[in-house]
Design a protein that fits this description.
Layout: E1 12-18, E2 25-31, H1 33-41, H2 45-48, E3 54-57, H3 60-75, E4 77-79, E5 85-87, H4 108-115, H5 122-133, H6 145-156, H7 159-163, H8 166-175, E6 180-181, E7 186-189, H9 200-205, E8 217-218, H10 220-239, H11 243-264, E9 265-266, E10 271-272, E11 275-276, H12 298-301, H13 309-312, E12 346-347, E13 350-351, H14 361-377, H15 385-398, E14 400-401, E15 404-405, H16 434-441, E16 451-454, E17 470-478, E18 481-488, E19 498-503, E20 506-511, E21 517-520, E22 546-549, H17 555-560, E23 584-605, E24 616-623, E25 626-633, E26 640-659, E27 667-673
Antiparallel strand pairs: 1-2, 3-17, 4-5, 6-7, 7-8, 8-11, 9-10, 12-13, 14-15, 16-21, 17-18, 18-19, 19-20, 22-23, 23-26, 23-27, 24-25, 24-26
Helix pairs in contact: 4-5, 4-6, 6-10, 8-10, 10-11, 14-15, 14-16
Length: 674
């Protein structure tokens, strides 16, 4: 994957936009989608072109990580064939995933929030279907998936897709009664199952000796998730006309809001904190934990707290360097905590995951989302948009390892260096970033009504180190339209000073300063989703379709070439290789039954060293007891998808026969058949 830190000035074309109220056209530079995608993603540009919103700014780091995070999203799309696409958290398998899909539900909300901005709505849509129809939301971790489903509706306006899972949402919501205290009217959870092992409640419950398990507590996180899910179910029910369910779930949400503010707000800390649910020699039931944690900001992630000066005071801890504001990122626990940054858990000699101080992109995403909500929807003077830009820049910097983008699991707040850094950790998809850029920095605020609202959180002071001289977010799919938001401080970049908003190429609003703008926006019905099915996906090695190869036939790597995963990151090997020097090789898919096939997509990885795309290949179908050529590719490319088509044929097997490049091995990342 090529992630060039380029200015990309060559990707600008002179086009026109309608000036409001004049009927005349005026120059307005546009980003060329093909040029940008080719420069950023090389041979894999086709997936991104006319799919992702384009972005550029005067800060090349923001630009690079914006596109890098789209490449991470793309890499984590796993094609399950007839079950559609899901989004994974780790590129490779881990022991605690849901087998055989490699799914986990803790970061699903982030994945949906990111995927809702794609013009191809299949990725978010299939994933939501999997969560509610395919058993993906197995409550392995606490979650806010109903809320994310509603958030997707706010962008694409597809009411039928958003409401079709209401019965499953209500069922799963009711299952969480097993974590609900009917006396306290609050939810509780073990921090491990909140995706936050080694927090204050679990470490203290062990007497400071451990904290991986245990430490059950009434936490701001799970109660905020359940509040958000209740609000979403209420709103989705209202869309269907079910006023009784809408009122029921709104009442549940309001009850949680009341109890979180009454019981989890701690006046002494001026922060939302856990209360212990257990009694032992170390902690007492209902006592508050003895320190501030970053999780205390999760209520704002979902707009739960009242708009009062008292609650807003919590945000002073997020910008205090002696408290939660580390030099290189937001600490998950304050350094005053007795067991701050003590390393308890190892994989061999390598440090493992802990939440007792390290920077976690997961909670950094939640805090930045909450901060954007605070700056947009609350009246307070504790933090400002400059704090949002600074924290976003700090988070952006964490994405770099040795000068190259590679987001890992957690970081030392004192150095910005990765802590865990295990083989599984590269390009870790346990957080969000694109959504923070779109809804926060650029300020497109999704709404249920027919109004377009934009309120950029970019700093307004030119002396601010994170001031942006210009930025442009182009062709964002929103309410069936394509929205472009451009800012030019002096007119030097786009030939027009100020903030300009266009819809479907026509200017609809402008301001000389970075200001909140709202304009009517008549929505259009979203385009239907196309769902071609990969007929070659193999999730369980012993099942059909089944792979085999001429050489290098390690069962693991053969399976990787049919497992529905496509990525081109050199840190994570993925796919089958025949071996250097073999000259010719083949890879076969046995469907186990006669199957009509008419197209194939082959993806190859190259590293400019030992691995290269094959010189050529042909595709052969097994028919009437012999191999019959159906298609060929004379110039296949690497680090992208090579597609070939032919007249439909029915065959039990299909194989690709390769002529390797002289002196090179090859790696077949994935073979898909349609």
């Amino acid at each position: 994957m090529r992630m060039a830190g380029l200015c990309l000035a060559a990707a600008l074309l002179a086009t026109t936009a309608l000036s409001p109220g004049t009927g005349r056209t005026a120059p307005s530079p546009r980003l060329d989608a093909h040029a940008v995608a080719s420069a950023r993603f090389g041979a894999d540009a086709a997936w991104y072109e006319d799919n992702i919103p384009l972005f550029e700014s005067s800060d090349q780091r923001l630009d690079q990580i914006y596109y890098y995070r789209w490449s991470v999203f793309r890499a984590h799309q796993r094609d399950l064939g007839p079950r559609g696409y899901i989004t994974t958290e780790f590129l490779d398998d881990v022991g605690w995933q849901r087998w055989p899909y490699a799914s986990l539900n803790d970061a699903t909300g982030f994945h949906i929030q990111e995927g809702r901005w794609l013009r191809d709505r299949r990725y978010a849509g299939d994933y939501i279907d999997f969560m509610y129809e395919g058993g993906g939301n197995d409550r392995h971790f606490a979650e806010a998936i109903a809320d994310a489903t509603y958030a997707r509706y706010l962008v694409d306006g597809d009411q039928a897709a958003a409401t079709r899972h209401l019965a499953a949402m209500k069922h799963i919501y009711a299952l969480w009664d097993d974590h609900y205290d009917f006396d306290k009217k609050l939810y509780w959870i073990e921090p491990l199952l909140d995706a936050t092992e080694y927090t204050i409640s679990s470490i203290d419950a062990s007497g400071g000796k451990d904290g991986f398990t245990g430490g059950h507590a009434f936490r701001p996180s799970i109660n905020s998730y359940m509040y958000a899910n209740a609000k979403a179910i209420s709103r989705l029910s209202a869309l269907t006309g079910d006023t009784a369910a809408a009122a029921d779930y709104e009442a549940r949400a309001q009850s949680l809001k009341t109890q979180v503010q009454k019981s989890l707000w701690n006046d002494g800390f001026a922060h939302f904190v856990d209360r212990h649910r257990i009694n032992n020699d170390h902690v007492k039931y209902w006592d508050p934990i003895r320190g501030r944690e970053l999780v205390g900001y999760v209520p704002w992630t979902f707009g739960l707290p009242d708009d009062t000066p008292a609650y807003a005071q919590a945000w002073k801890h997020a910008v205090d360097p002696d408290e939660l504001a580390g030099p290189f990122g937001l600490r998950t626990v304050e350094p005053s905590y007795e067991y701050y940054m003590r390393q308890y858990r190892y994989e061999g000699t390598a440090p493992e995951c802990q939440w007792n101080g390290p920077v976690w992109p997961f909670q950094t995403t939640q805090v930045l989302t909450g901060l954007a909500n605070l700056l947009n929807d609350y009246r307070q003077d504790v933090v400002a948009r400059a704090d949002y830009a600074r924290l976003l820049a700090q988070y952006t910097a964490l994405h770099y390892q040795d000068g190259k983008p590679d987001l890992e699991e957690d970081y030392d707040p004192a150095t910005g260096k990765p802590i865990v850094g295990l083989a599984r950790s590269h390009h870790y998809n346990h957080s969000g970033y694109v959504d923070l850029m779109i809804t926060g920095l650029v300020g497109l605020r999704p709404r249920a009504d027919d109004v377009l609202e934009v309120n950029p959180l970019a700093p307004t002071d030119p002396a601010d180190p994170h001031f942006l001289k210009y930025f442009r977010l182009q062709d964002v799919a929103y309410h069936g339209r394509l929205v472009t938001i451009a800012w030019d401080a002096d007119g030097a970049r786009y030939g027009r000073q100020g903030l300009v908003i266009s819809v479907d190429g026509q200017e609809v609003a402008a301001s000389p300063t970075l200001a909140r703008l709202t304009v009517p926006l008549a929505r259009k019905a979203p385009a239907p989703i196309a769902r071609p099915i990969d007929l070659a996906v193999n999730l369980v090695r012993s099942d059909y379709p089944r792979g085999s190869a001429s050489s290098g036939a390690d069962p693991k790597t053969v399976h990787q070439a049919l497992d529905g995963r496509v990525w081109f990151f050199p840190e994570m090997a993925n796919g089958w290789s025949p071996g250097a020097g073999v000259g010719k090789a083949w890879f076969e898919v046995d469907f186990g039954k006669p199957t009509s096939v008419a197209a194939a997509e082959l993806s190859f990885f190259a590293d400019d060293k030992a691995l290269a795309a094959p010189a050529r290949y042909r595709l052969e179908a097994w028919r009437d007891g012999k191999w019959v050529e159906v298609a060929k590719s004379a110039t296949p490319s690497a680090n992208g998808v090579d597609r070939t088509t032919w007249a439909p044929v029915t065959a039990g097997k299909l194989r690709a026969v390769f002529d390797l490049a002289p002196g090179k091995d090859m790696r077949l990342v994935e073979m898909k058949v349609f």
